[in-house]
Write a structure and sequence with these properties.
Layout: H1 2-13, H2 38-41, E1 59-63, H3 67-78, E2 82-86, E3 98-100, H4 103-112, H5 114-121, E4 135-141, E5 155-158, E6 166-168, H6 169-177, E7 185-186, E8 191-197, E9 202-207, E10 212-215, E11 217-220, H7 228-236, E12 245-257, H8 258-265, E13 274-278, E14 281-288, E15 293-301, E16 312-314, H9 317-323, H10 329-335, E17 341-347, E18 355-356, E19 359-361, H11 364-367, H12 376-391, H13 400-429, H14 440-450, H15 452-455, H16 459-474
Parallel strand pairs: 1-2, 1-11, 2-7, 4-13, 11-19
Antiparallel strand pairs: 3-6, 4-5, 8-9, 9-10, 12-15, 12-17, 13-14, 14-15, 16-17, 18-19
Helix pairs in contact: 3-6, 3-12, 4-5, 4-12, 12-13, 12-16, 13-16
Amino acid sequence: MGIILSRLRRLLGRSSSAETAVPAQQQQPSAKSAESVESATTASKPSPTLSPAAKSPIHIAIVGSGIGGLSLAVGCLRNNVSFTIYESALQYSVIGAGVGLGPNALRAMALISPELRALYDTISSGNLSQDKLHVAMEAMYAEPGFGEKRGWTPQPFGAPCYERTSAHRADLLNILTSQVPKNAVQFNKRVTNIKQFPNEGRVELSFADGTTATATAVIGCDGVKGASRAVVLGPAGFPDEIAPVFAGKYAYRSIVPMAKAQEVLGAEYAGDAKCFNGPDVNVMTYPISSGTECNIVACKFTDKPWTHPLWTHRVTEEEVRADFADVDDRLVALIACAEPVQWALHHHIQTSVYYHGLVCLLGDSAHATTPHQASGAGMSIEDALILSHVLGAVEDWRELPAAFAAYDEVRRPRAQKIVRTSQELGAMYACQDPQYGDNMGKIVKNLNERFLWIWEHDLEADMATVRSRFQEARKGV
């Protein structure tokens, strides 16, 4: 019953947010809904198709079909920007873990597409407790007893502007792909080279299958290890920034049935989002899949380098338990539900520019971050909003560098601050910050303040700024 009431409250309470005003040039017929809700929402609608050119003066190659690339594609559709998505996999990804979106990300989604925002409400999950709508998480000690010996009880952090919402990544990708025309996507296209012809207004992409493609510009949405990053930062004079940096931690990830989580952890500690903190550890648990599943991210911090050839490393169950030796047995048992695989966490702590010539970066390829502020996916959606908005104003390919420069000016300072402050918060969670130590009261006070600049950001002002900067720069083109 709690799950149903939570879903109804969000749908009713957010009905106005899905109607968020969108600039006039974005108003176009929406595409069909996701397959998971098709029968209830758009059973009579045909599949979306990409119009031949829509009189677009440019054609964009979007490399990668993750959250950022797909959000950009939806934004391009609504701004009459022609595009093709090139995805290295054989099909859209159907795997993944939980994704948390803050109010800033949800506003960005609504500004990109009100229908997409409404669809998100059909797949999202909040806290199961009815009185915790505005609670991001509850802070706990990870130690045995969860801090009871200290007299500690779960303490919430959040804000009135915040509504707890998260989703399974596969569900989010499903609603995004439902909005993208099938004829706008090419699969099994792993990029091996990107060559610019800036004086001709074209970029040539080469793929592992031996084929090539040409576009006016390339938007690299190919993730933290994507090839597009080198194409931008190398020629721009920042080769030392190309490679992602190990963030000093690895994670164990899992999704378990909520009933199992409540059985292992206890009903009072599972069902609502929790943040368990202790020396060199941080464990996040929160509901997804309409509250039927629990997403778990258990981070272990280390001062040693990551020396394994891959970013995933299988270990024994004994090694998992050793990583969390000083953690409550109930939480260790929940972590043990995961495959004993360490996922090395990397980020782009420094990125001096997001574009070079006719190639531009978006999402993790630009600013991969650690998960501590739950802002990685949200930043990708914000990127997509701002970039698609300014691309919609381009009237000639020669204006593209000016558009990319305006996007870089608006997005890079905010996104890179996310990367830095997420790393700082990780240290606080792991009791490594000498200013806070293991004083959970001081940590919670900080948590109730530190997210506001992220959540309350004025995206409409960013849209106006990027358009203004572009209009100023294009005068010299």
